[in-house]
Amino acid sequence: MRNWLPLHGYQSYQRIQRTGLFRASPPVILAAGFLGLILMGTLLLSLPMASRNGISATNAFFMATSAVTVTGLTSVEPAIAFTHFGQIVLMTLVQLGGLGFVTFAVVSAIMLGKKMSLTHQALALEALNQTSVSKIQKTAFSVFKLSITIELIMATILTLWWWRDYPLITAIYRAIFHAITSFNNAGFSLFPNSLNQFLGDPVTVLVITASIILGGIGFSVLGDISQKKRWSSLLTYTKVIIMGTLALNLTGFVVIWALEFNNPHTLANLPWHSQALAAWMQSVTSRTAGFVTLDITQLHDSSTLIIMLLMFIGGGSLSTASGIKIGTFIILLAAVYSYIRHRKEVVLFKRSVSSDTIQKSLALLLANSALIFLGVLILTTLEELPFISILFEVVSAVSTTGMSRDLTPQLSTASQLVLTLLMFAGRLGPLTLIYSLATQQRSRVRYPETEFQVG
Amino acid sequence: MRNWLPLHGYQSYQRIQRTGLFRASPPVILAAGFLGLILMGTLLLSLPMASRNGISATNAFFMATSAVTVTGLTSVEPAIAFTHFGQIVLMTLVQLGGLGFVTFAVVSAIMLGKKMSLTHQALALEALNQTSVSKIQKTAFSVFKLSITIELIMATILTLWWWRDYPLITAIYRAIFHAITSFNNAGFSLFPNSLNQFLGDPVTVLVITASIILGGIGFSVLGDISQKKRWSSLLTYTKVIIMGTLALNLTGFVVIWALEFNNPHTLANLPWHSQALAAWMQSVTSRTAGFVTLDITQLHDSSTLIIMLLMFIGGGSLSTASGIKIGTFIILLAAVYSYIRHRKEVVLFKRSVSSDTIQKSLALLLANSALIFLGVLILTTLEELPFISILFEVVSAVSTTGMSRDLTPQLSTASQLVLTLLMFAGRLGPLTLIYSLATQQRSRVRYPETEFQVG
Ligand SMILES: [K+]
Ligand SMILES: [K+]
């Protein structure tokens, strides 16, 4: 029996299937929910009151998909094309998509005082990848509480800071918008050229990056921290993810700074503290948030490569970030290290990791790589554009990062539809993968082992 | 106890270590052997009699490394820069590097009627990744016999065919050179623009591709076929590799043909049978042989991407081809498929695959990817060249394919040295990886299992 899904959850799920309450498979329900949100968003964004001069159905669909999948790729500029109504629709789609309609469903159920239905339980269990149904209820509620708290704090600080330059109402409006898009790692901005004007502004950069990191580190980590308070009593998983996040962000910071130090189009002409802030922002945002303060088209190819790796890895599990996830990345590294060190089991912080977890990590790595490969293959046949720009765009879509080398608006409708599919698959992919597993037949046959040469 | 190395071999190895006969670790000896060959080759190619107008030490070193690692990247044209002596040195380096100095050492030992020393046994065992020492002796001898037989047959056909256009001596000389370089998947050619002039020549294309496939499928497969003769009695491994090779080559053939069909710089202006031959040649050669009949710089980015995937996968284990190897690729696919199908074990042709094999495959995948990532990172900082050309060059070097978008001669000395390191690591990498394992400390501590979220 595989242990990737807790017995408890799996049995509930089987019971649901047997009682016929729940015939559609969970990934179908999840995908349908996201699709429903996207279609509703498309409809609302198509309304005359949503845009200043009207936008095409393709653009509305693209922007809605980008919002629900918390990507942030833009075929039209939200600040220019949309009215306040359109912008509020956009940020609502981001909030619903980011925290996940599943979490919302669970939280609503708890708030309404209803005992969660088994359908909801199984749904929440798979979506949040948690280990017990009762735990999920607590988690779901703390997801909601934590998110709103963090977003409120960030919005307050940004309001006070931006009030110096904007009328209070404008400051509040923009602060809420950016608190939501940054915490949900959704990269939309209401300023021209994303956050370029805040390049050297320490308060804005540090608040936005803090919000990105908190949204992208994963709710189980946040939950564990908020319960335990002390480092020594944290779960191994929490410690590993915190250290991994820190390591990735700092590595990105140093490497991007070093590689762009002499680039007159990015860092070279800035004072050192602005260089530091810009490199930090670029490193943090690459882990699938997608805001930019630098001109992405002017970065060296070497930094662009580093950024693509950061996008591919992404944030923590159970977070508003996407990518293969930092936990997956760490497991893959640990597996290779253990193999080289000749260990029978994969060991991480003196704990062994199950072979199922390793296979799941491998599956995620290959699924995301295959998605990127296919995306690039299709886009290179559809467009005559530099390979690196297409690769960057596809990695950005699959990891739902939303940075672009100014490519998105230039693309044909066909290519934009391919990108919507990639964003959708990139955001739901891991979930659907896990989900599909539960619905497959298990084999009871044992096969004899074969010797197989590799490498 | 891990089962990746047979107990038998491991015990011999331990005995050797204990008796102090064999203090250097096997990967060091292997690497040193290759390095020795490369340095000897550099010296010989630097001799005035080797080149028409003299070549730089860097070029001699680059060409020797390219030959010993059977890559075929060229900083100078072998047909133009080298004399006959230089060309013979080159093909000798290819033959020694391709069949492996290990195999040669083992075969020599057998031929000399000496009982193999334990040192040789352990060395051969690790290098050929076989399961018993007595089996290795047989294998080594059949490697030698098979290689020479196949090369002689190919050389004879090519001689007869090319005799129509060249004097007999020239035909024999070129036939031997190309029989050796094609069977060893080393991609050097004595004609201008590689094999471009044979674009529509069915005999040359089919002989060269057959030679490439036979050299690149792996000696255990060839050995099994030559012993069993009948499909039904072949090993599972043999069947899988044959079918996988066929599937990859045919897929590459169809996809490249389809993507280049309308390209006036490659296939569009050719008759259909030449299109077919050119697409077939391009598909087969991409699995790390490196000959070309088409102009690589003129291929669509989409076909270039496909070719990079084929290069990355490469040929069979225990062959003159490199890459992660087709067996590794199949195991990775099988692991993902089994995971999705909810199977506890990875099943391939009704045989289960050990978790060690899967971890090894994962290690190979990540090691090669990391090598490519680092190579591209360094080259993009050193050169101002199109990203796709650099990526192609690096994948070609790491997989020891040797195709280039005409980049190699343009590169700075520093970049060329990076390429030599990549070729060296790409060819030895998997071997050294396996080898290093045996020299590491085993841990006897059992750690408790931890839950770890991925994806
Ligand atoms: K994003
Ligand atoms: K080659």
TrEMBL record, chains A, B:
Q: Which UniProt keywords apply?
A: Cell membrane, Ion transport, Membrane, Potassium, Potassium transport, Transmembrane, Transmembrane helix, Transport
User: Any idea which GO molecular function terms this record carries?
Assistant: potassium:chloride symporter activity
Where would you find the membrane-spanning parts of this chain? 28-48, 60-82, 88-112, 143-163, 203-222, 234-259, 307-340, 361-382, 417-438
State if DNA damage is listed as a keyword.
no
> Which GO cellular component terms, listed alphabetically, does the Swiss-Prot or TrEMBL entry include?
plasma membrane
Compartments where located: Cell membrane
Coiled coil segments of this chain: none
Q: What is its main location?
A: membrane
InterPro entries in alphabetical order: Cat_transpt, TrkH
**The keyword Cell wall biogenesis/degradation belongs to this UniProt entry's keyword annotation:** no
Provide the membrane topology annotation.
Multi-pass membrane protein
User: Protein name, please?
Assistant: Potassium transporter
Which source organism does the UniProt entry give?
A: Pollutimonas harenae
